[in-house]
Amino acid sequence: MYKVIHNIHFPVSARSFVEPIVSKLNKHQFDAQLWMEKWENHLDTIKSIEVPKRFISSDLTFKPIEFIRRLQAYRGALKEARPEIIHTHQTRSSLIPLLSAYLEHVPIRIYHNHGLPYLGYKGVMRWLLYSLEKINISLATEVLLVSHSNLKAARQDGLLNENQGKVLGSGSICGIDLQQYAPHKFDSVAQIVARDKLHIDRRSFVLGYVSRPCKRKGFHRLLTAWQESELGEKGNTLLMAGCSDRDIHTIVGDDVPGVYGLGYIDNMLEFYAACDAVVLPSDHEGFPYSLLEAAAAGRISIGTDIPGIDCVIQHKQTGLLVPLDNSHALTEAILKVAAEPSLRMKLGQQAKARVKLEFDRDLVLNELLSFYDSLLKEDSLVPSRSQTDLIQTPTNKEFILE
Predict the structure, then answer these.
(1) Distance between CA atoms of 174 and 360, rounded to whole angstroms?
(2) By CB distance 3.0 to 4.6 Å, which of 207, 244, 311, 312 could disulfide with 263?
(3) What number of other Cβ atoms are within 10 A of residue 119's Cβ?
(4) How do strand 398-400 and strand 2-7 relate by DSSP bridges?
């Protein structure tokens, strides 16, 4: 049995994206653990994670003494665990684990890039983030990316050569659990129930946004486009999950007709049920799950034509793509979707069919298992230590390392 460590720093991301992977591995003759940070304001999320887990600091810090402390602690944890594989997720939280694993001679070091943040910046910050990607890649033995267009961008920008990098299947981190997206949860009855709970007019057009209130995610761009559309003045609604009314006031300085900030919400299924369409006008993305979840719910999506989003949305087949930094084009796309219920229905159903065909969780995770098997069959990477040397981990045990 091979020991595998999956590392990601943020508990919500750990539960959404990495727990399904670790659970799958533990059901297929791997001894897998999830390592993450213990965020006090996300203890309920942490408690809901049922796979073996360990708390350890791995997020990048620019304070030299703290960086060394985290590096030493991580190396000590690896010496104790003695994994054959370390699989790190996301850019910032991968440097310390990968460097530790390199120094401790972990044979297989997988860097799983969830997106290329430097694409959303200019100047010094772009160079710093690009350099961080280069370092992570140099420390890894294998590099995975979550979308084919991100892989293409990484190669074009010199991060990877033509023989480096891989996308599993059609992309995404862990696919979608389609059992949660049964059709009755998003039909007309479910939509009425969801809208009534949110006190939204049953007859209005409802556009959903799921992300943080920052420019790189298109928050400002979307508010501008919504105001230009004048849909709010006509009784229609822009629902924003992950953003509060206070965030909206901070940016606009006044009430925006029809815009409701819901803040952080747990029940995203009801959110998608309430919506007619979902929008994400980001500057950069890896493989945006809000759009994939919307597709699973049978909802049409609107997004910027950038790497990552262009792998989720097939233009005029499952949604609409608009040029980056063109709020007028975004406004026109929103108006078109609002005015054409038949288009929403057609493209939404095509989006749902594509999710079932390409992004079902079992399909994506089986691709990962095959990837692992191919690595372990390579003689140079098969660990020399015997199975009896491995530390076995009960599935319900929780490890804590502060």
Answers:
(1) 9
(2) 244
(3) 21
(4) unpaired
Vertex 322: Cα angle to 317 and 326 (nearest 5): 170
- For residue 171, the cross-strand partners are none
Give the dihedral of Cα atoms 275, 281, 287, 288; nearest 10 deg. Answer: -30
Rg (CA), the chain: 22
Length in residues, the chain: 402
pLDDT of the chain, 402 residues: tens digit per residue: 899 999 999 999 999 999 999 999 999 989 999 999 999 999 999 999 999 999 999 999 999 999 999 999 999 999 999 999 999 999 999 999 999 999 999 999 999 999 999 999 999 999 999 999 999 999 999 999 999 999 999 999 999 999 999 999 999 999 999 999 999 999 999 999 999 999 999 999 999 999 988 888 999 999 999 999 999 999 999 999 999 888 888 877 677 899 999 998 888 999 999 999 999 999 999 999 999 999 999 999 999 999 999 999 999 999 999 999 898 999 999 999 999 999 999 999 999 999 999 999 999 999 999 999 999 987 455 544 333 333 333 333 444 444
Cβ burial of 396 (10 Å; 0-12, 13-18, 19+) is exposed
Residue 13 vs residues 7, 18, 35, 46: alpha-carbon distances, Å: 11, 7, 12, 11
Phi, psi of 320 (to 5 degrees): -125, 135
Global pTM value = 0.91
Answer whether 302's CB lies under 8 Å from 332's CB: no
